[in-house]
UniProtKB/TrEMBL annotation:
Keyword list, A-Z: Aminotransferase, Pyridoxal phosphate, Transferase
Recorded coiled-coil stretches: none
PROSITE patterns in the record: AA_TRANSFER_CLASS_3
Highest taxon listed in the record's lineage: Bacteria
Cited PANTHER family: AMINOTRANSFERASE, AMINOTRANSFERASE CLASS-III
Protein name: Aminotransferase class III-fold pyridoxal phosphate-dependent enzyme
Gene Ontology MF annotations: pyridoxal phosphate binding; transaminase activity
Family statement: Belongs to the class-III pyridoxal-phosphate-dependent aminotransferase family.
């Protein structure tokens, strides 16, 4: 790449003057300018490249600039760049068919949105309309997006300044390492978390609850794999009380866990599935809801009161078709599963054996986390200042990390190789040994 510090300076000047950034005080500037990327790497204007072990916001599942997908977008752009959602469009039908084809039998229809938040927004709307009920139950350790109902369904700190939607109730999901239930085994955690949820449902009044909204594997909250029986138990509780189950697969879906949908690894059938991110690696903003047939058919005669100008946007649709086909023909989901099991999991276990600062490692596929602690016995989270130092040192050594609270999430694209993982592990190892 050409060395062009002028472009870097221009990018920084324009950004500082005109760009209002997400989730941050505007006086704090990003240290990083990214000019281009390919596969698992991105680079700045000066030609310095970085190994992307964040997949940006855990979305570039096929890596950056996959040539087949870029070409499909180019082709669609030359044919038809935009069209109203009420029209019939071939690319839209092809995209919906592929997504529905990955869902369990009996899910035929897809409603397309602009991203993950409005996917959840519309799943919640569908659940309320279908059940005639109101409340949405979701966990404190969750992120569901930054719009009306989605941000209030979210459990983490981002909900609190945004609590303007009504009808939302939160509960604690399982998280054995920091158990809310004094559990010592995964079985205890599962059983007690289910008992807690049952009590919440009973206390809220089951007939007032439209849906339970869960990330199949809570992602930003810490890659919290559900213990044995938990998702199955939630499904049973929901069914017992006529409550719908919405599984949020926005981050976990489309290869991230080494499965097409994360829930494929569990014996659970949701009523509504939300997706975004990995469905097309974020090349064009898109998301959606996959709808169980009885719910979809409830709107055969009745009007669905929801829509978006860009629902089923042709560029997004073409990118979904090409992404899905590339993931299938190149074995990208199987690669995520293999690299996760053979390189990432043992590699992180090795780091944990070496560095006391690692309290726990967990994950599946290309969806892993290292939880860093000040003290292994008390499990006190590593302070924010130390996490910031670690993050800075990782970037300094050429690795783009996903750092959240006291955790490093190891979330490379699904196309990552064993050699990339070895390179990343060496950087984590070095930084954990020297940065604190
Ligand atoms: N749901 C989950 C599980 C997510 O991780 C995210 C984003 O990180 C969202 C929903 C929101 O998606 P978007 O940012 O595309 O609106």
């Amino acid at each position: 790449q050409p060395d062009d510090s002028d472009l870097d300076q221009l990018a920084r000047t324009l950004d500082a003057a005109h760009v209002f950034h997400s989730w941050s005080a505007q006086g704090v500037k990003s240290a990083l300018t990214i000019a281009g990327g390919k596969g698992v790497r991105v680079w700045d204007h000066a030609g310095r490249d970085y190994l992307d072990f964040s997949s940006q916001l855990v979305n570039t599942n096929i890596g950056h600039q996959h040539p087949v997908v870029v070409e499909a977008i180019r082709e669609q752009a030359s044919l038809l760049t935009t069209i109203a959602p009420s029209t019939v469009n071939l690319a839209r039908g092809e995209a919906a068919k592929r997504i529905a084809g990955r869902a369990p039998e009996g899910f035929e229809k897809v409603f397309f949105t602009n991203g993950g938040a409005d996917a959840n927004e519309n799943a919640i709307r569908l659940a309320r309309l279908y059940t005639g009920r109101d409340k949405i139950l979701s966990t404190y350790r969750s992120y569901h997006g930054n719009t009306g109902a989605a941000i209030v369904s979210t459990g983490d700190w981002r909900r609190v300044p945004n609590e303007f939607a009504r009808g939302h109730v939160h509960f604690f999901g399982p998280y054995l390492y920091r158990s809310e239930f004094w559990a010592e085994t995964p079985e205890q955690e599962s059983e007690r978390a289910l008992r807690h949820l049952r009590r919440v449902i009973e206390s809220e009044g089951p007939a007032s609850i439209a849906a339970i909204l869960l990330e199949t594997i809570p992602g930003t909250a810490g890659i919290l794999l559900p213990p044995p029986g938990y998702l199955e138990g939630v499904r049973e509780l929901a069914t017992e009380h006529g409550i719908l189950l919405i599984l949020d697969e926005v981050m976990a879906g489309f290869g991230r866990t080494g499965e097409w949908f994360a829930f494929d690894a569990y014996d659970v059938r949701p009523d509504l599935i939300t997706f975004a991110k990995g469905v097309n690696s974020g090349y064009i903003p898109v998301g959606g809801v996959v709808i169980d047939d009885p719910i979809a058919h409830a709107f055969d005669e009745r009007v669905f009161p929801g829509g978006l100008t860009y629902s089923g946007h042709p560029l997004a649709m073409a990118s979904i078709v090409a992404t899905q086909d590339a993931m299938e023909s190149e074995g990208i989901v199987a690669n995520a599963k293999r690299v996760g099991a053979e390189a990432i999991a043992p590699g992180l276990a090795g780091l944990a054996a070496k560095h006391d600062v690692i309290g726990e490692v967990r994950g599946t596929g290309v969806f892993h986390a290292m939880e860093l602690v000040a003290d292994r016995a008390s499990r006190a989270p590593l302070p924010a200042a130390d996490m910031a130092r670690i993050k800075g040192a990782l970037v300094e050594r050429g690795l783009l990390p996903f750092v959240q609270d006291n955790r490093i999430h190891v979330v490379p694209p699904c196309v990552v190789t064993d050699a990339d993982v070895a390179e990343a592990l060496a950087i984590y190892d070095d930084v954990l040994a020297t940065a604190l």
